[in-house]
Design a protein that fits this description.
single chain, 157 residues, mainly alpha, 3 strands
Length: 157
Amino acid sequence: MKQKTISASNKTKSPSSKNHKNGSLSKKISIIIIVSAMLLVVVALIIPLIFSEENLTKQKLDSMAEDYYKNHLYSDFINSGKFDSENLEETMQIYAERGFSHVFLRQILLHEAYRDTEDAKFLREACDENKTIIQFFPDAPYTKESFHTKITYSCNF
């Protein structure tokens, strides 16, 4: 008959295995700290790019220009009586290529809809009202929602 023997080393854990677990825990904590520090550095570098004065100025100017086109320039043009509705597309194609007359930032900021807004105050300080120019280009299908702009900035960036 064969006897099975169980060695005592299988039943008890040696002190070196505890040190091994503590060592791997220390490594994991170190890795977590290093990765966290790296993430903080990346975030610290990206935040100024996202919230820079240049980006903020461009965002405010783009938003104001978009609103100006949709709520004033487009409707004023359509209601001007310079053409009939049958040749709207033909007329707009001309402006799609060359753009509407350029608009100085000053013209938009003096408009009653924007005159006293916080964005207007910000843009007055950030940009030269007489040198910052916005040009609007209608895009097919020539609705008030379909257009693009070309902006020549003269701002503090």
